What does this fold into?
Amino acid sequence: MRRAVIAGNWKMFKTRGEAHSTVRELAALLGPLDECEVVVCPPFTALDAVRNAIQETASKIQCGAQNVHWEAQGAFTGEVSVSMLLDCGCRYVILGHSERREYFSETDVMINKKLRQVLSSPLTPILCIGETLRQREQGLVLQVVASQLEGGLAGLTPSEVSRIILAYEPVWAIGTGRTATPEIAEEVHQLIRNWLKEKISSQVASAARILYGGSVKPENIDDLMAQPDIDGALVGGASLDPKAFARIVNFRKA
Ligand code: PEP
It folds into this structure.
């Protein structure tokens, strides 16, 4: 049985004060969280404020970051390291988000280096993959997703891969209000699981948690979560609003 994960990616939104009050409000709206892992990924500057709010409310909400550098430390102006994230109370880190691939030229090679650094620590990586609209229209979904997996996971052992949470995020659905239908999402989640089965192992494939991301909202979460291979969601816009995010976390099982 795969435990569901609902992660909120706040992107470049919320000051420390806003982050603190959002988490306090969210914690008050959520139940005991026995069946679902809930992760909030604020900007670096608000990690500490999120950790404080989690501690004050004794909530099981976890804190995650949106990126990390692949070196342990050094002259890398503007970057943060794995140990800095751990020091701020982070337990998760998003890697390879399409916005980082597109606007900051992150490649699969860079993402692979980040994954190796993260996997040498107690952090859990959330690895994002997904095709653009053009690639989908050209019938390249499987090729794109397979090549992102091949590049991102290169050289990792099955036990390392088993620690990664995957997030299928079709680029055309991110921040556009255009969600993949549950059937489209399920089809790609199955492709990803099959790829893991073929290239890594059946055990890793059946245990892998694969989240869907792309305009997830209170209105579509129940149908998405009803799909057998969708194990949770990576939520952007709707995670900024505690009421909407709480409804997503409290998705109704089919
Ligand atoms: C995201 O940022 O990962 C995302 C899926 O954004 P949104 O939910 O706003 O589409």
In short: The two ends are 16 Å apart (CA to CA). The pocket of phosphoenolpyruvate is lined by residues 9, 169, 174-175, 213-216, 234-238 (CB under 6 Å). The CA atoms of residues 175 and 237 lie 7 Å apart.
